[in-house]
Specification:
Elements: E1 6-10, H1 17-25, E2 30-34, H2 41-48, E3 56-57, E4 64-66, H3 70-80, E5 86-97, E6 101-108, E7 118-120, E8 138-141, H4 158-162, E9 170-182, H5 192-210, H6 214-226, H7 232-241, H8 254-266, H9 269-275, H10 277-280, H11 282-299
Parallel strand pairs: 1-2, 5-9
Antiparallel strand pairs: 3-8, 4-9, 5-6, 5-8, 7-9
Helix pairs in contact: 5-7, 5-9, 5-11
């Protein structure tokens, strides 16, 4: 697939290497966009998630890479699903080693198959506190008026927030067509309280509107207990911080409360910051709640596979 344009965004004004690389390549399809100041990952990605003059667009992050047939296979899937806007493929996982060498792990983000593309509706359990698509393996159809910009949230949750703006269904291509690298350095924060706050926000705003029955809620709690590490404390924080999720508490077990108390003793700032986040980050809470409610109203909830 040779018919493409590349906008190369350099978000490090002090790094001359991107400009040097473009000059060396001498490929008119590659256009350098030099930021005059560092915007950060979330704001830089927001520049990308708006409709363009091109019919499709993709984001290739600096620590990921595509297989040679990525664009061709993704565009073929888009032709078969003309009503869909977002397509994403499976990814192989690599780990960066000292010296800039990347080593394959033999794992993929999802279980690979040779089957056809799959349509995925809104309201998957993975979306309670996570995301189903991957930025670095996605193709987006450009439609007039589309704007998938999100608030200035930490980079670790950009995919989770953005999935609450997308039109559904999404289309998943199960073959691994892209590569994700676990790098030695990361822009993701190591702030435990921040992560707990965001996980609780995502869970609370989803579960308030999902209308899960008691059996499904019990399964969600069981899945949270089996996660590594367990995510039950996020469910408890969601229920304690958001009145619309108080019903979650009736499925909590003593071991769930014990984990929460133990973690709070080890990191006392976490519960204080999570439970106060509705005041400190009211813009995040309100944005998530409004857009999550809109998703459920517009798309309903996909049947559990």
């Amino acid at each position: 697939m040779a018919d493409w344009i590349c906008e190369l965004h350099n978000d490090d004004p002090g790094n001359p290497r991107p400009a040097q690389l473009v000059a060396e390549l001498r490929d008119p399809r590659i256009q350098l966009h030099q930021h005059v100041r560092n915007l950060g990952g979330t704001a830089t990605f927001n520049l990308f998630f708006r409709a363009t003059a091109e019919p499709f667009y993709s984001l290739l992050e600096d620590d990921n890479w595509w297989e040679p047939d990525f664009l061709a296979v993704m565009l073929a899937a888009a032709e078969k699903h003309p009503d869909a806007t977002v397509f994403w493929a499976n990814m192989r996982i690599w780990e960066e080693q000292p010296g800039g060498v990347f080593q394959p792990t033999g794992r993929t983000v999802r279980r690979p198959t040779t089957g056809p593309a799959q349509r995925v509706g809104w309201g998957q359990r993975e979306q309670i506190m996570g995301a189903i698509h991957s930025n670095g393996a996605a193709l987006f159809r450009s439609r007039p008026g589309d704007d998938f910009s999100i608030p200035a949230v930490p980079f670790a949750v950009v995919e989770m927030f953005r999935e609450r703006l997308f039109p559904y269904p999404l289309v998943h291509i199960p073959q691994p067509l892209a590569n994700f690298s676990v790098t030695l350095r990361s822009a993701r924060s190591r702030d435990h309280a921040e992560w707990a706050t965001l996980q609780s926000m995502l869970a609370a705003t989803f579960l308030q509107h999902a209308a899960f029955g008691d059996n499904e809620l019990a399964e969600i709690w069981q899945e949270a207990r089996g996660a590594v590490p367990p995510t039950t404390s996020s469910l408890l924080f969601a229920a304690l911080a958001w009145p619309g999720c108080r019903h979650l508490l009736r499925h909590a077990r003593p071991i769930d409360w014990w984990r929460l108390i133990r973690g709070s003793i080890r990191r006392p700032a976490v519960p204080w910051r999570v439970l106060g986040s509705r005041q400190r980050h009211a813009d995040w809470w309100n944005w998530l709640d409004q857009n999550t409610a809109a998703c459920f109203a517009r798309f309903g909830r996909a049947a559990t596979p």
